[in-house]
Amino acid sequence: MEIRPTTDQDLDVFVDTLHAAFGRFPETPTDGRGVWWSALEMDRNLLAMTADGRPVGTAGAYSFELTLPGEMLVPAAGVSFVGVLPSHRRQGVLSAMMRHQLTELRARGEFLSALLSTEAPIYGRFGYGPATYTQRLTVQRHQAAFAPPRACGTADAPAAGSVEVLRRAECGEILEEIYDRYRRAQPGALSRPRRWWSLGAGQPPVAAAPRYVAVHRDDDGCPDGYASYSLGEPGTLTVDETIATDDAVFTALARFVLGHDLVTQVVFKHVPPEHPLRWQLADFRAGQVSDHTDWLWVRLLDVPRALTARSWFTDGELVLDVDDPFLGEHGRYLLTVRDSKADCVPTDREPDLSLDVSDLGSIYLGGTAPSTLVRAGHIRSHRPSAATLADALFRAERSPHCLHWF
């Protein structure tokens, strides 16, 4: 078997092989709209070929920026398009592609990668760990009254400004600009390259599918938030995503969609697990949570570079013993944090925590507490206070969240 990089001439073969791996047929774009694979970066994709030249597997990556705690922006490979033909599964094709890809990412100088996992058991063995989470929130409109604010200046107080309803086709540049401001301040968020918007590659509202968009503007008329939504049957308003530069703007947009006429319920598809919206409703049970799930999975390719790239909010010192069984690597590192900055160097000191590189990926953005993984038997704590210190060190200024689909 040969694993080789693709060129522009391989586009049709790559797309057809990927669809065959999942038992699907390529869709036909209509009305000039792009399809989800239109933003492929062919110089970042791989094809697995049999000895007689037949394609049997695919793997690819996008070039993104990932926002780390402390609003630090770093390059990240967004791994996608991973598939193996049913006739060649459980023959080592996937493992060979993933190993080849990780080696290639390192050769490019990248120190972390991320993906969305279609099946949770698959990618842990390749060193990826779930790092952000999301959930669906459904609110019955007759229960959608907001409680009066209990404190001055809280986010549930009415935001200054106004809401304007536009069609998706009218406001592409506005959405792009608001999302870019949002993702630069939100840990766990990924960039959306301009070509994604121009090609309509992805899911709504990146895709040019018919949608209404509630755009919030501040008192100066500057757009600072939006909610992309559509109405379906029976009486359900579904919000693709709500993007806001602060909590007050999110609340204003939530009030708007929850007040929509001829609607019996509103479904917010992507809400961070710790979002305050449920607490803002007069009836706490009015917001029904479902589909709480992992979203972004993270894999560290260079532990010292990754740990020194993010900001930190507590001073401290930990020795991390990190095992990477998929790549056959093992390292012990002294992590020292002072004044929001970290130093991470190899050490021979006794470890405070022993963990798999996939578990390090899970705690990296602050979305999973190290103590949770200690209790789960994933991380071994070598002294009683180590997990408590690790919780304090790895926390983020706000819960990481990613809603970009790729």
Describe the structure.
InterPro entries: Acetyltransf_17, Acetyltransferase_Eis, Acyl_CoA_acyltransferase, Eis_dom, GNAT_dom, NAcTrfase_Eis, SCP2_sterol-bd_dom_sf. This protein has about 400 residues and is an alpha+beta fold. The chain has three domains: about 110 residues, Gcn5-related N-acetyltransferase (GNAT) (Aminopeptidase); about 160 residues, Aminopeptidase, CATH 3.40.630; about 90 residues, SCP2 sterol-binding domain (Nonspecific Lipid-transfer Protein, Chain A), CATH 3.30.1050. It contains eleven helices and 19 strands. A seven-stranded mixed beta sheet has the order 1-2-3-4-5-14-6. It has a seven-stranded mixed beta sheet with strand order 8-9-10-11-12-7-13, with helices on both faces. Strand 3 and strand 4 form a beta hairpin.
